[in-house]
Amino acid sequence: MSKEWPLWEIFIRGQHGLSHRHVGSLHAPDAETAIMNARDVYTRRNEGVSIWVVEARHITATAPGDKGPIFEPSESKIYRHPTFYDIPEDVGHM
Amino acid sequence: MADAKFEALLRLGDNALILGHRVSEWCGHAPVLEEDIALANTALDLLGQTNLWLEYAGEVEGKGRSADDLAFLRDAWDFRNVLLVELPNGDFGQTIMRQYLFDQFNLLNLRALTESKDTRIAEIAEKAAKEAAYHVERSRGTVVGLGDGTQESHARMQEALNLLYPYALELFITDEVDDEMAEAGVFPDPKSLEDAYLVAVAATLQEATLDLPEAHFGHRGSGKDGRMHTEHLGHILTQMQWLQRAYPGQTW
Amino acid sequence: MYAQMVKSTGKGVKTLDEMEPEERAFQEKVDADIRIEPRDWMPEGYRKTLIRQIGQHAHSEIVGQLPEGNWITRAPTLERKMILLAKVQDEAGHGLYLYCAAETLGVSRDEMTEMLLSGKMKYSSIFNYPTLTWADIGAVGWLVDGAAIMNQVPLQRTSYGPYSRAMVRICKEESFHQRQGYDIMMKMAQGSEAQKRMAQDALNRFWYPSLMMFGPSDANSVHSEQSMAWKIKINSNDELRQKFVDQTVPQAEYLGLTVPDDTLAWNEDKGGYDFAEPDWDEFFDVLKGAGPVNHDRLEARRKAWDDGAWVREGLLAHAEKKRSAKVAAE
């Protein structure tokens, strides 16, 4: 079997002002072709104004087992959220 | 003037129609899914352009013929496409080489047409030129990649080029229709596009490590005026027009 | 369905108490509708069954390009040609999304392709039937895509994240497919005598194969129970088949076409139609390779794969040359 083209992760900005969002993946021999393939595969219905491609093997991710130590500590910091504070209605919008 | 404009519009429409038809034959059969999808996009763009050009051709002719009438109810001698686009797909390399040789012309032609004194033509060209710019980028990249790829891919691309390049030169032969349209500022003189075309093609081939063959378009008569076609065109039409011919006058 | 006859590798459904802690945590997540992601722990049976199911679904999409692709060059108008081409292209896209989802489970697209071509993996039996007339293109869109949507909509909630996200994307795109099929059928049914005959003939040929798409009754199947516990199968085959018939019969009536089933009758008690089962012997024969076009379908895929090898290798070789030239320059 011949060598397979690398896998690329595709990120598309749907409208001006929004962040790029992961939409899926595809195969391509190089970055330039990955962009073109992404255009042909993932924007057939006018879905995008900007495309990022990243070769999948270059993505570093959190390990599922780390979920506790990484994400749970922020759960207790409820004072970061605006709803934590009671401001009298008389003060007006804040 | 109206006759020449009708003829000239048919050339645009028929090139797009026949090439779009050929490229659509790949759907489901391409070397890799990503290419399958990309080729279908190219075919869809070309068929969309066909619709616009032939619809306008029908209006200019003034006999009430629609784009569909022109596409499905003319016989081979009434088609005005160049021979290049009706040639069989061959292998993927031949298809992509044909695509690049046409795309490069189509882009230059459409860009010139955005300056047409006929505003309808200029508008259609404006839209189509954007599509063609992407087609060139894609087919050019693939020609370069395969030309410079493996020994086998290089050999296949050189073979495709040797076969197709003489046909590409038909795009630049001129006749009375071209003269009249260029004179009126409606269509560019094909000859005026040739230098830019040759420069662009040479650059691509160099990057693709392919050799430009010594060649000229030697056929007497051209698809542009219908005096010449390959036998392939008739077979394309037997498929394309089958339903309209077998069940005339129906709504589909 | 596209995943008809996928056997899960589990050995019957275990209770939570019978599970080791890891598997129990996994099952509790599934039960709570929390998606399983690629790097999460999962039972080996879940992974293997998913690969088979998603792979078969992906293969069905790309083999499914062929019967409809068969009419792209013969579509009767420019607009119909473009619509059909766009539709068949979508199917290639759906195949691509699904292969990518399966790849997150540790199998490559090339490996799955080899398994399709060697017959180790299957595709839906429906694509082993030929499209003989233009009305068949209408029938495929209306009935085959109709049946597919019925299965795919619930799969948007399937437990495996990448699969579920692929299904969301597919369902969004799929909604135009069934409509364009029905639109073709309407034109034919309202057209000339010949067109009406063509439409009826297409319904006659595609009705039972469409019912087969949901697979045989799975009332007592251990495999189905396991797949449902894992939420990679959401409804039973019979449930979906009933839903499909109930939805489709009135649509056929609207067209003035006759469903080719003398026993078809509304059953007030169950609030659905009684209908005849398809010929399951035919189903198993077709699945084993005896359909009218099994050979053609696989041959077309094999040819595309073999003929395309030099292209895939050539473009990769060029990319690698460029990469090393860049490295050398730095």
Provide a concise account of the structure shown:
Chain A: This is 1,2-phenylacetyl-CoA epoxidase subunit B. The complex is a heterotrimer of chains A (94), B (252) and C (330). Chain A has helices at 31-42, 67-71; strands at residues 7-13, 20-27, 50-55.
Please explain how this structure is put together:
- The complex is a heterotrimer of chains A (94), B (252) and C (330).
- Chain A is of the alpha+beta class.
- Chain A has helices at 31-42, 67-71; strands at residues 7-13, 20-27, 50-55.
- A three-stranded antiparallel beta sheet of chain A has the order 2-1-3, with helices on one face.
- The longest helix of chain A is centred in the middle third of the chain and has 12 residues, at 31-42.
- Chain A starts with 6 loop residues before the first strand and ends in a 23-residue tail after the last helix.
- Chain B has one domain (2-246): Ferritin, core subunit, four-helix bundle (Ferritin).
- In chain B, 68% of the residues lie in helices and 0% in strands.
- Chain B has helices at 2-24, 33-61, 67-72, 83-86, 92-113, 119-147, 151-168, 176-183, 190-207, 232-240, 242-246.
- The model of chain B has no long low-confidence stretch (mean pLDDT 97).
- Chain C is mostly helical.
- In chain C, a hairpin with a 4-residue loop joins β1 (265-267) and β2.
- In chain C, α2 (44-63) packs antiparallel against α4 (78-103), α6 packs antiparallel against α10 (237-255) and α7 (161-189) packs antiparallel against α8.
- Chain C is globular and about 70 Å long.
- The termini of chain C are far apart.
- Classes of the chains: A alpha+beta (94), B mainly alpha (252), C mainly alpha (330).
- Chains in contact: A-B, A-C, B-C.
- Chains B and C meet through α1, α2, α3, α6 and α7 of B and α3, α4, α12 and α13 of C.
